[in-house]
Write a structure and sequence with these properties.
heterodimer; A: 532 residues; alpha/beta; Rossmann fold; 3 domains; 8-stranded mixed beta sheet; 5-stranded mixed beta sheet; 41% helix; B: 207 residues; 37% helix; disordered C terminus; binds thiamine diphosphate; binds iron/sulfur cluster
């Protein structure tokens, strides 16, 4: 088949389609969103499989698990922190096992380009004791996804593909192969899928018994390779995923290329590691993310007679993403000559709300109302509105994880914060805000919740939101919020005074209030205009 | 033979479109390419950049190493300077002179331009004026693409075709103004005096 230019994310999506995918699920999140966007476009054309956005990652994972139970192939993708939300079904899916191939694709964000942390999903694969592929390039992303479905069906376990921003959002050409068909419907066995202790114990023992075979699979994987040289045995390098590219990039400048082990399939291929470590004096471990291989290698006591270098030793930075430059230094090379600005300091340009954004008008009204209270706290959530942290708004005091605004405002209110205010977007509310609101309604907590309904998931590029419009209002009422304290405002400059008044009234109400600010995101409106 | 290009600008200024045109032409010529781009948070009016690598040989890193870029092509002068340390000493900078001011501490424009002029091989373009001449100030990115066209590793003639593909769905007028913007950029660059390249770095694989 002809080569195509694809994002790393898209290469995974295409690999899944060609592996005979029956259904894909995801919740938006950078840098993973383009996997589902590609699947949705492809599914709209062929109608051959299901591809849809879920309300959150846990739901997405469980939907995929249902597909796997039915004997069909499923893909579930999410940004790295999404796997925290899906961690419950994820960990237990290793015990139920996979009936149809089940592939889980978290996309990590080292460097936190668009994220609140830079956790490394390989640790989750290790935790669940399942196989993990970590592609170093686009062709591998495609091939590994295809292979992941085979491995999943062969082992009867979910398989992980770990992506990182720089691969997810880099384009390069991929040469696809012939696609294959989907599985027939075939239900899973209840004694495997019903995780009562009696079954779960047996299933967990099965996973433990299978570990040796998994290590062998990894040792024989075409994506792991060991190249030993006798010309120089002082240094050997272990490089995983895209870190392998940064090593390769710098090799031409080394007089003698060192022995090199590429690790792109896990569990850690013990034999290959042993082969390298025994061959050299110093081992440099280069991996994108947390030091997984390095830590296993080093243990508490190190390897007798060998020096292990990497992130833990300080030879590579422990935070942020790797780069060709940081790896270059760790390899003992001098930095390349380059131009510089001679100390001239450049102003930073942080992201900000679009001019005319509805959130800005909500924040102006909120700031105006809050002038009368000196102890107010605004617990925010994750979305475009988190940018209310910056001037000129400076209204946001917290942002932790999806849905935390409502729960934190409740906790804060219960120990004396007043006004205790939560600010959450419509999609984030659907994701994780509904359950804490149910609790706050039951307790009639003295707090004010803003739901900013711009009818889309704006921050991540305008995916559809479920908890919007009339349904959103019915949801709020449905969990038991008093009707007279559900207020709808239209965030527009001309409504500033009126809105500030509504806000003040609800803050002064002793009990729970929900203010829904309804106005469409400008980007969303633009998109609609463009598509007619 | 290879060429490493940093594309720079502010979210929404269309640097991904520039990347698309060059990358498509490169693919057609059978060249290897990698293009790392920025999605997500910083697209909201923040600084964005794209690393575009084209080569006859295999490309390893998705990111251009600092000190390896042949060209910084920027739709905005402050953003042009942000990536100077990616440029090799004889690297080239082509930048718009039109500031995009959405921050309070935006530096003095003349200082910025003089900093750009300190780079031996530079070209500063009034992309707004040329874009308006082409029919729409939104075509500034294509003016800059035009200005760089003669210095790219891909064939200059191969580019307009993908400008058409890119803007096709927006109708003929928009295609025409973007093609014109591209041509105006080409003309300005052709007339400009450039310090010639010193002949590439030696001792690096692929040169
Ligand atoms: C667990 C988790 N999943 C996904 C994301 C990515 N993400 C950031 S903000 C956001 C949703 C924003 O939508 P909404 O709350 O409607 O606010 P808007 O951006 O539209 O203002 C998402 C999905 C995340 N940070 N954490
Ligand atoms: S994308 Fe929409 S919600 Fe986000 S800042 Fe722009 S207008 Fe506001």
């Amino acid at each position: 088949m002809k080569p195509e230019i694809l994002l790393g994310d898209e290469a995974v999506a295409l690999g899944a389609i060609h592996a005979g995918l029956s259904a894909g699920y995801s919740y938006p999140g950078t840098p993973a969103s383009e996997i589902m966007e590609y699947l949705i476009k492809a599914a709209a054309k062929t109608k051959a499989f299901v591809a849809s956005w879920s309300v959150n990652e846990k739901v997405a994972f469980e939907e995929a698990l249902g597909v796997s139970f039915a004997g069909k192939r499923a893909l579930v993708s999410m940004k790295h922190v999404g796997l925290n939300v899906a961690a419950d079904p994820f960990m237990s899916s290793a015990l139920t096992g996979a009936n149809g191939g089940l592939v889980v694709v978290p996309a990590d964000d080292p460097g936190m380009h668009s994220s609140q942390n830079e956790q490394d999903s390989r640790f989750y694969a290790d935790f669940a004791k399942i196989v993990c592929f970590e592609p170093s390039n686009h062709q591998e992303a495609y091939e590994m996804t295809r292979q992941a479905f085979d491995v999943s069906e062969k082992l009867g376990l979910p398989v992980m593909i770990r992506l990182v921003t720089r691969l997810s959002h880099s384009r390069s050409s991929v040469r696809p192969r012939e696609p294959r068909g989907q599985n027939e419907l075939k239900y899973g066995a209840s004694q495997d899928w019903t995780l009562l202790p009696v079954n779960a114990r047996r299933r967990f023992k099965g996973i433990l018994d299978g570990q040796a075979a998994m290590v062998r699979l990894s040792e024989e994987s075409e994506f792991n390779s060991l190249r030993l040289t006798d010309k120089d045995r002082s240094l050997g390098v272990i490089a995983s995923g895209i870190a392998f590219n940064y090593v390769q990039e710098n090799l031409p400048d080394l007089e003698i290329p060192p022995s090199l082990l590429k690790v792109c399939t896990y569990p850690i291929p013990e034999k290959l590691i042993r082969g390298l470590v025994e061959h050299v004096e110093t081992v440099l471990v280069v991996e994108e993310g947390y030091p997984l291989i390095e830590r296993s290698l080093r243990g508490f006591f190190g390897v007798a007679g060998k020096t292990i270098k990497g992130k833990l030793s300080g030879d590579l930075p422990q935070t942020g993403e790797l780069s060709p430059e940081t790896v270059r230094l760790a390899l003992g090379l001098k930095p390349l000559e380059r131009l510089d600005l001679g100390g001239f300091k450049l102003a930073a340009r942080p992201p900000q709300l679009c001019a005319g954004c509805p959130h800005a008008d909500t924040f102006h009204a909120l700031n105006k109302a809050l002038r009368e209270y000196d102890k107010a706290n605004v617990f925010s959530d994750i979305g475009c509105y988190t940018l209310g942290y910056y001037p000129p708004y400076q209204v946001v005091q917290t942002c932790v994880c999806m849905g935390a605004s409502v729960s934190m405002a409740k906790g804060g209110a219960e120990v004396g914060i007043h006004p205790s205010i939560a600010v959450i977007g419509d999609s984030t509310f659907g994701h994780s805000g509904l359950t804490p609101l149910l609790e706050a309604a039951a307790a009639d907590t003295n707090m004010t919740v803003f739901i900013l309904d711009n009818s889309t998931v704006a921050m991540t590029g305008g995916q559809p939101s479920y908890a919007t419009g009339e349904r959103l209002l019915r949801m709020i009422e449905g969990v038991g919020v008093a009707k007279e304290h559900i207020r709808v405002i239209e965030p527009l400059p001309k409504n500033l005074d009126k809105n500030a008044l509504v806000i003040k009234e609800e803050i002064d109400h002793h009990g729970l209030s929900v203010i829904v600010a309804v106005r469409e995101c400008l980007e969303e409106a633009k998109k609609k205009r463009r598509s007619g | 033979m290879k060429q490493d290009i940093i594309l720079a600008g502010v979210g929404g200024q269309g640097i991904i479109s520039i990347a698309y045109v060059i990358a498509s032409a490169a693919l057609e010529e059978g060249l290897e390419l990698k293009q790392a781009e920025v999605h997500g948070m910083s697209q909201r009016g923040g600084a964005v950049q794209s690393h575009l690598r084209i080569s006859r040989e295999r490309i390893w890193s998705d990111l251009i190493p600092r000190g390896e870029a042949d060209l910084v092509l920027s739709v905005e002068p402050l953003e042009a300077l942000r990536y100077i340390d990616y440029l090799r000493p004889d690297g080239m900078i082509i930048s718009s002179r039109v500031p995009f001011i959405n921050i309070r501490d935006y530096p003095d424009l003349e200082t910025l331009l003089s900093k750009i002029r300190e780079i031996p091989r530079h070209l500063i373009i009034d992309s707004e004026k040329l874009a308006k001449e082409a029919g729409s100030s939104r075509t500034q990115n294509m003016v800059l693409l035009g200005a760089a066209a003669g210095r790219l590793m891909v064939k200059e003639e191969g580019l307009p075709r993908y400008i058409k593909v890119l803007f096709e769905r927006h109708g003929e007028t928009i295609v025409a103004s973007n093609l014109k913007a591209f041509a105006l950029g080409q003309a300005v660059a052709a007339a400009a005096d450039f310090v010639p390249a010193s002949g590439g770095r030696t001792g690096r694989g692929g040169g």
